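User: I want to check something. If I give you two sequences, will you return the structure for each one separately, not as a complex?

Assistant: Yes, each is folded on its own. Here is the first sequence with its structure:
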Amino acid sequence: MPNNQHPSELRQDIVSKNWVVIASGRSKRPKSYEGLKAAVLEQPKEECPFCNFDKQQGVQVSLIHPLTSKDPYLDELKKEGAPLPTWKKEPYSIIDIQNKFPAFVKDVDFKEKLVGPYRVLPGYGYHEVIIPASHNKTYGQLPDERVKEIIDVFQSRYLALAKEPHIDYISIIHNHRPEAGASIAHPHSQLFAIPVIPKDIRNSLHGSRKYFEEHGKCPHCEIIEWERKEKTRVIFENENFIAVCPFTSVVAFEVRIYPKLHSPYFERIEENEKISLAKALKFSLNKIYQALNDPPFNFFIHTAPADEQNHDHYHWHIEILPKVTIWAGFELSTGIEISTVEPEQAAKLLRDAE
């Protein structure tokens, strides 16, 4: 581990083969992160587009979970004040809509062309927004059953869009605060269904397959087994999932959530596993909220593609990346990230946060 004689350490990821620098000697004391304060989007409910769908034109709803008048969650939402989120004047707990300003659309002619030496495809695909009803509560502050409901929608929309023509990959992401890319304060996630497999996924698939061929086992399963023995980087574990600060963290306080049993495909998650995942995700996000004073962050699901190929060597997971530093010249010129807090110490700070 880095120490006074060696203030940094290079660590290599066993899947990607990428190097990261753990340079705790460059950081302030880790406790200083408690004072980190990000920009806040001032957006009262009366001005929130996600709390006022009935006042908008052209909203296209893909999925909605209505609330009955007897549902106790309705009383919790009323405590947040008016307006109560409704669709066609009926309250709901979560809604999935097509993005008003989509990066990808389905109504295009899907034909490849060449522009000079470059291949070009139209921006075909789907871009949806998953919006829980609560305007004020982050995912880490919601009840377990509401986080599980978010995961239900992730799975349901994934399964529906994976059947659409030309869709090879579905990316599910969450941005929190402006520094992480959120332009609306109301907590929400996004789903992108696209006709190509992204570079990071291709590299991860390649590295996972190569490791499996060389060692006869899934690299992520080996990581999980080792982390459970070491324990120093584990922040949460239940019957089905484990959350760790990875040995090769690319940013300080990175957290990864893995299913403990080998599984390539997120969309095949079982009902009992979803409540376990909800608990792991809520716990991890709440610990980051407490330890780092509600910082900006991104999380996303890395899963095997929807391209009908065999990816049994892969192991799906969730990555949570707090925004506590910015890339500078070294990172941009080399592609090597510098993390200024040892994952072992980050895990302890997260575990101890209240």
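And separately, the second sequence with its own structure:
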Amino acid sequence: MYDVIIIGAGPAGLTAAIYALRAGKSVLVLEALAYGGQIINTPEIDNYPALPHVSGFDFASALYKQALSFGAKVIFEAAAAIENNGETKTVVTSKNNRFESNSVIIATGAKNRPMNIEREKELIGKGVSYCATCDGMFYRNKDAAVVGGGNTALEDALFLSAICRRVYIIHRRDEFRGDAKAVEQLKQKDNVEFVLDSVVSKLIGEERLNAVEVTNTNDGTARTIDVSAVFVAIGQMPNNEAFSNVVTLDEHGYIRAGESCETGTPGIFAAGDCRTKSLRQLTTAVADGSISGSQT
């Protein structure tokens, strides 16, 4: 029996653990994969107050160690279901372990959104990747493409431009959603080409990716671009389906919860990228963690 069970060991979940532990609560953190969440793949964080240029890995590692130092218990098992018993909650894991608590904080974050085109899954690890900082060095001095128009795509392109021979940024619109500063930086790169108003329509290659077919969204014309890798950065999807019996999801699968992080079910909170919100950033994730951790 724990005072609080936190599902997810990303910035929101670990911050919630710290706040709950400092309030004298017993805390269990359940994590399906590895601590840190998406931020662990960011090579350099520039928008977190007072910590310029810290790497995502260093930030996540420090946060994890801090939570452990306060007494958090972390078990690396996926939460498969939440049972609402009224005053208490039971979290069932993928290994059929059952843990009880007075409160549950869902901080599952979000997962990468696929392009949903033919052979995408087949070529994962063979030229298709969703993490430039993880896999970029495999394509050093080769040509690569980045798909997307947000900050992640722009950051991926900047990172790859330093190690790849040529980088193509493929975006379905004619303007980027990401920071204007990053766009300007990319415009200054001699080895970066913008492929706008375009989508990847085909992945080409037998054993490995050799090229992508790109179709213009305005006139339907197609173009083949020779690349050894395509890095997909077109957004994320929440992973909340398993908890739809105890929380309400919006049309995109995010948990309906406001700035209080309350889900509408007493004792169950949602924190970080998994909940409905206008801005999903590291700062808002840790803010959610501090709010939800303080209310348990």
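Because they were folded independently, the notes below concern the second chain alone. The chain has six helices and 17 strands. Helices lie at 11-22, 56-69, 132-135, 151-161, 180-187, 282-295.
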